[in-house]
Amino acid sequence: MKRLITTVLMLMVTMQLFAQSQDSAVVQTLEGSEKIYVVVVCVGIILLGLLFFLFSIERRLKKLEKKS
């Protein structure tokens, strides 16, 4: 029973957090000038570069493990 009450209280707290949908000034500025798309594209390119780098390192490590 104590677990159920705790779960319900936690859900109520999270519902209250979702009710506050005020955007910050930075988000409003970026959306207003459509620069948010540039930010999203830059973040995507950086993530793709990091993933490519990690997979290339993984392939190199597999080759080294096979040799030894």
List the secondary-structure elements in sequence, H or E: HHH
How widely separated are the two ends? 58 Å
Counted beta strands: 0
**Coarse shape:** flat
Average pLDDT value? 83
Please indicate the percent range of residues in DSSP E strands (runs of 2 or more): under 5%
- Total helices: the number is 3
| Radius of gyration based on Cα positions | 23 Å
Protein name: K+-transporting ATPase A subunit
Transmembrane segments: 35-57
Signal peptide: 1-19
Keywords: Membrane, Signal, Transmembrane, Transmembrane helix
Structural overview:
With about 70 residues, this protein is an all-alpha fold. It has a domain at about 25-68. About 85% of the residues lie in helices and about 0% in strands. It has three helices and no strands. The chain has helices at about 1-20, 25-30, 35-65. The longest helix has about 30 residues, at about 35-65. The chain is flat, with a radius of gyration of 23 Å. It starts with a helix and ends with a helix. Keywords: Membrane, Signal, Transmembrane, Transmembrane helix. It comes from Pedobacter cryoconitis. This is K+-transporting ATPase A subunit. It holds the Pfam family CcmD_alt.
Question: Which helices and strands appear, and what pairs or packs with what?
Answer:
Elements: H1 2-19, H2 25-32, H3 36-67
